[in-house]
Amino acid sequence: MSDKLQKKRGIVVTFLVSAAVVLLAVLYFMPIWWVSLTAPNYPPEAFPDGVRINFHMNGVFNGCRKVDKAEIDEDVALDCVHEMDTINHFVGMYPIASGGVVEKAFSPFLISMLGVMMIGFMITHRGVRLTVMVIGFGGVAAWMYLTYYTPEGLKWQTPGYLSSMVISLDQTSEEAKKEELNPIIAQLKESLRESGVRTETSAPDVEVAAEEGSSEENYQILKSAFENDQTRKPADEREEWTGSGEQVLFWHYHRALGRWFNNPQEINPMVANMHMAGTILFWVVIVGMVAMLVAAWKTTWPLYWLLVIIPILLPVFFIAEYSAWLWWYGHSLNEMGAFTLKPFMPTVFGQGKVAQFTTHSYPNIGFGLMVASSVLLILAALIRRKSLRDAQGNAA
């Protein structure tokens, strides 16, 4: 095979993988999946998308749009994350913030790790490949350690992650030290009592503050909420604020679990298990990066293909993870719920029915970008495989 053809193939592989890396970076900031609930008491005039939420890699965000109609006075969109939590808790379901807590916290490091693997696959020269991967993985490991274990490490987290945590606190920035906000459903009832016209109140200030505020502002909101929680504990059980990702993650998780069903005997073991899962995942990422360096040593052995196969499978990993957490929500119903439901599997894809609610669950733009990235990587892998086989044939 001519060197000219090999060079052309190399250029094509570089282009395909580079495009896949760009898509990977972009999709991190995009909604991956969306879910909505529709019911007769949520008319489409006021809820055109139903009670809708968007799943991102680093959190769950409001998917409801502001309604501009003469008969509806609405300054900002309803906070449908809280609305869905309010609906779900009646059947004993834990808040949305209690799912995927470790995965959301580690998502920037996992995505960055995949990006380094993809770049490593793109580079054919072993010395350059290993050098780039060592630098890349070293940066990811340092970032992960600083974020998770060091004081004020939370400041190294992504803005979207901090925003999501603040929104799920159910507090405003001004009231973080004072009190919980009333659920938005109470505001709706109040407005209906006061007027015969359907007038929607604005979403809680916390959502606006979290989405429009800086990372530093959201950090301070979380700190204030943490310190406020400590004042409610006996003096010997209080914890000093460090601001590490680990501390805030599991305080926030404990708070989310106890938002509706505050049963310490049930919650504490769940937090302990998740704490252990966080530690395990931290070291799995470290060991995984070392393993990928070993895999990248030679292009002639099967381990090399892990550099591209694992990123290709990202959509599969997401669906598996998403499905597993849906199963957990449907099979971990708290007995303190107002209504009793048998354990069930929420709809992963398509339309389903739970009581009077119709559920809708579909991929969003981020998942499309994820699939597109995988397709580009598959094409790049096939071309690289052809090039390596031809090169080995010529060498023989």
TrEMBL record:
Record key words, sorted: Membrane, Transmembrane, Transmembrane helix
Annotated TM spans: 12-34, 105-123, 130-149, 280-297, 304-328, 365-383
Protein name per UniProt: Uncharacterized protein
